[in-house]
Design a protein that fits this description.
Elements: H1 3-7, H2 23-26, H3 30-42, H4 61-72, H5 79-89, H6 94-100, H7 107-115, H8 119-125, H9 143-154, H10 159-162, H11 177-187, H12 194-206, E1 211-214, H13 221-228, E2 232-237, H14 240-253, H15 257-281, E3 291-302, E4 309-312, E5 317-319, E6 324-331, E7 336-342, H16 347-355, E8 359-360, E9 363-364, E10 373-374, H17 375-378, E11 399-416, E12 419-424, H18 425-429, H19 434-440, E13 443-452, H20 456-479, H21 494-500, H22 511-526, H23 531-547, E14 554-555, E15 562-563, E16 577-581, H24 583-590, E17 603-607, E18 619-622, H25 632-635, H26 637-643, H27 647-650, H28 669-684, E19 691-696, H29 701-713, E20 716-725, E21 740-748, H30 757-778, H31 788-803, H32 813-818, H33 828-843, H34 851-855, H35 859-872, H36 878-888, E22 897-899, E23 906-907, H37 910-913, H38 927-941, H39 944-954, H40 962-973, H41 985-999
Amino acid sequence: MTKSAESAATSANNTPLAWAPCFMEHQFPVAKVSMESYKERCAKQSQILTGLGKWWGRKPLVMVRAALLGLLMPASDDPIKDRKIFLKLMTMDDEGLSQRKDKSIPQKRLVKALRGLPPIMRQQFLDRDASLQEPRLRPKLSREEKAELQGLVFWRMPYSEKLRYCCRPEQIDGPSDEAWGEINSHLRTNASSLPELTEELGRLRFGHRPRVGDSFCGAGSVPFEAARLGCDAYGSDLSPVAALLTWAALNIVGEGEEVAEKVKRGQRKIFEAVDQQVTEWGIEHNEQGWRADAFLYCVEVRDPESGWMVPLAPSWVISEKFNVVAKLVPDRKEKCYKIEIRGWRSAEEMEHARESGTVKNSRLVPPDGGPSTPIEVIRRALRMWENDDLVPRPDDVFQERLYCIRWVETYYEMKKGRKVVELTKAKAELLPDFDFLLESGELKEKTRRLYRAPTKADLEREQDVLKLLKERFHDWQAKGYIPNRRIERGAKTDEPIRTRGWTHWHHLFNPRQLLTTGLVYEAVERRTGKLLAKASFLLGISRCVDYNSRLSRWHPRKIGDKTEQVFSNQALNTLFNYATRALSGMEPAFFINFYPQSINSQCFVQPLDARLTESVSDLWITDPPYADAINYHELSEFFLAWHHKHLPNLFPEWYTDSKRALAVKGSDESFRQSMVDCYKRMADHMPDNGLQVVMFTHQDVAVWADLTLILWAAGLCVTAAWCIATETDSALKQGNYVQGTVLLILRKRTEEEPVFLDELAHRVEAEVKRQLDSMLALEDESDPNFGDADYQLAAYAAALRILTQRPIEEIDPAKEILRPRNSGEISPVEQLIRNAVKIACDHLVPRGIENAMWKGLSPMERFYLKGLEVQSHGEYRSGVYQELARGFGAANYADLLASTRANQTRLKAASEFGRRYLSGDGFAGSLVRQMLFAVHQVVKNEQTRDGLNWLKTELPDYWQVREKIIHILDFLAALRQVSGMTHWEKDAEAAQLLAGAVRNDHI
């Protein structure tokens, strides 16, 4: 051991470093990590691992990095310095942001910022021309002045806005040389890179390079980031699809630029071979030489009321960008509808097309306005498809129809004098000097997209596709080029069976989709390639089928129409109209895009039940399934159906079954026991000084109570918990969805002396207050570290720390886990966790209100005032207000809400109450309610005297509570300064006037 290592072998308080608390057990910069996680999620395709393929619930790499460094870095007796060093490691300090700043702040934003600066600064950078209507920057600023202005504005921005102009932490090499000097001085290390530091800290704590494991690895965020930081990494998952993604993250993305180039070249050769075959068949070209890139299909059913065949679609808008719609034209002789494609429609016609869909609220709505019919009624005649069914049979209730093709026309523009002449591709290629004109730029190749209804020739090409597929169908199924597995029934997989009668996985794809994807698979199998290349091709095919299925939505958009992926949500939803990508449209899906990295650690990945883990890890970081889990085992079968015959060729030791029976799922005692078995296995396979992080995403107190018992029974205790915001906004996420991930830090439980339930209540209260006080001590008003939800979750975590610390005399966790629960039953553990939230609510007094006065308010008054403070922080999730209500015991809190819409929940302002709830029990008739009405009177009558008179008339103890009234009115008046609470503007101003009147009122 080196001298520096010897001096670092004990912590600041002389605790052996192997057993010393880690940074993450004392503090964690949740606000910054949350903002960085959000930035990474919003990056979409530029994320490092998302290009490999679809998986659900991926955790941001920056959050994993922060967790790993937080577990390895020891906590000293100087928490402020610890925090500073940790931020340097994450390049989240000022110096790190300077390194990461890679975009210039635009002029408009610079001018806006200069307006708020002192005149001397404005004069230095703004144009002094008095004739300008809008200020602008002074022309011909020097390079030095531009740099000075960029810095001046950048450093005045809040952290979240700074990130707009910065790359992500993983996109730079890490801290600067200067930063490493300060890091090494504090940690007593001698590192110049994150992998070097990781190894040093690992050897000091564990005696070797740290080993990190994840037995629910999913798409591989934890093993990948651990390996990139220099740890030895282990990943396993019950699903072979997840194992493949994790393996690819480590062995394809992690192998550097050279491997990335080889993969791309291999993909290009395969795609060119398939393109040549498709072109020879002529199934994507028409007589004018145009090539299709998208085919739109719809379901067609016979209306039981009218007997007409009706095409089904929720909307007949085809292109928002080019104003293209489908128009249903009745054919009374055949009792059906022709579908005309019309372009460049007016705004009124576009709106009519949006509203004239023939499926509304799961009912068939005839175009002529006749009576509607529930789709469920039509489904009664549904037939279950057989393996050889590729298209509906003539007597099937649901038929399928091609109704629009998007073509790409290639043409040329050539200059003739001052005119520009347009030539078709065929005419241009006949020009004698075609190549010369093209090279010289006098002839320019152009393309345009055209939407057309299918012609007779197009429909004949559809039949050619079906014929070509039938000729190959059985052979391709036998070779595994297209699926042959039946769909096993389940919570999610029942949907295609129930709604469409599709019994095999290949039924989720139409003939064109099966033919082109099968061709790709055939080309892949013909190539003799190494493991890396073959694995990358399988990933490309997975991406193709995700974007090219009967479950792929057509999405008309103003910025361009596109085909959505199957798993734009966590279901296998069948559609009434869908899109098929032509081969050219499959190209961006097949070519997996990733940013190569260099990983030199030892890594091992396998498909395995977490209960059978044999690998030993110093740090386990897991994101387990929850009581309301995503059905990974079912959804991943969509991909596994395509690869199950090929995975054994690549990984002979892997199984190719989804192992549904072993999946940790449900919310009953079997789920709880499965979780105990998994976490006990991991606890048994880590050293006594090892650490675990469990990523948990839930707001239900009952589930937290279950988690308490699970962790206790597994021999683990909670030492800390932090909440990270990981979800991006999405139109697909309706309702009050969870936006954060809780990181629970765990160690092996060492205390065996039991404690009684009646003792726990006092211990929980003390621990909750200690936890909250420590968080408040680290808070920075100008750059908040924690949000309101973090304090609520901290109360949960504090309760879990006490509850998992020792055995509980009256509770046997092993029996409690297996005991069936009655509906609405609240266990003693759950009640203790609920009480923890109440303690937190009482302890967290809103800023500006005195403690003594706070304790004298009723539960509903405290809920309202605390809710206003929460709202002033920009918090609109209903779950936060629900937790506040539980904590304060505010049973009828819904009466105080102005909105209960998802992510728009807020409390009523004074004037929004009007005269409601002025008398009675609870909030009605309370001091705060009377004050709100007095404020309303001031706003309504524009007379401060009216509000004062109301208070003096309605409050018999007015003079005794006068100081309390002033205090609360000042609190309400401060809301006028909150930018996101414009609905309080007039009321807050009135509260300020009324506070002055009460303050100046004397006997």
